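Archive entry: two folds, one per protein. Generate the first.
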Amino acid sequence: QAFFCLLLCVPWGSSCPPSCQCTERAGAKAVLCSSRHLEEIPKDIPRDAVFLKLDANSITRIPSNAFRHLSRLEELDLSRNAIEKIDRAAFKGVAAGLRTLDLSSNRIRSIPKEALLALNAKLRLANNPWHCECALQEVLWEARLDPDSVQDITCHTAPRQEYVGKPLLQVLDAGVNFCSVRQRTMDVAMFITMFGWFTMVIVYVICYVRHNREDACKHGDHLKSLPSTQGHAE
């Protein structure tokens, strides 16, 4: 009976993952999972965690709803991992309360803007092999980036070679607009598609007219070859 009473008395979510260390900081729970050789985000992080450090591990992906149960989470450190993919709903459930999010020093080339623009947290995105494109530009313009790390968001790849190796902010300050480039590309593609359809319609009309003309000529020749009514009468 004492054992079952103990189970009932222990609040759910208060246990600590075996690979982590849980401590109290000014009355707030901190879950420390740094340098634990983790390859994915632990499933049993306490629900009352306020600070969560997952830095210096081997995590490669942040799946949807990875932190949804952590409604009290304020600081999340995912720096120095091997993160390559971040799902659109990766931070769903923590967007309102999260104050800082560190994704620096990973392998992130691109990120769905929906994953970050819903956050009010201060973001650190430095030292990733970014592909400079419209989505990243929108994140830079609309998200709350840590001003101390903005200059370290550099273009690892880009539509033009001259942008490679330069800070994204510097490229944008020079007047480059990746979103307008994408829009122009879409406009050109749409124009080519419409021109193709228009050409097909013209060709079809020409073929239709020629075919009808040939049928009319054949029909006329056939009528000429028939004996006339006057000849039969004589």
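Generate the second and append.
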Amino acid sequence: MASSPTYSETEVKQLIAESEATIVRLESQIQQERSRLARLRASIAPVRKLSAELLAEIFLLAVQDSLGNQPRRTSVGHRLILSQVCSRWRGVSHTTPRLWTGACVENTLRKTPTRGYLTNLKTLVDRSAPFPVPVHLHCRSAKVEIGAIMDLFCAVA
């Protein structure tokens, strides 16, 4: 009858540490393979086979009113959601001017617009070119400076 090998306490602790390190390494490899599989599945998703033109039409349908004849007069945020799904959708949405024409700029100004606000407004106007964008600004205070906004709109009007 063969006797089983005897291990010292140090050897047992070393075997446990090596086994735990192996488990961590294998779990990391499993996670990497899951990520790779997810990327592969995404790359063959049917939506990726749509042409840019068809995807743009779908975007336009997504922002139409319930009658389907006019772009919904909603905030820019609804359009931005489409542009944040992935880099391809961002490219298509940014190069579809009609998508941005119904993005109604409505704002009640209580203070002078910041540089960031003006940059975002210019981006909206640039993306919608050559189509018009409806704008409704309301100034609640006589102290609000809207000269920069007016300059922006006059430059493209």
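Annotation attached to the second fold: The chain has a mean pLDDT of 82. The first helix runs from residue 9 to 43.
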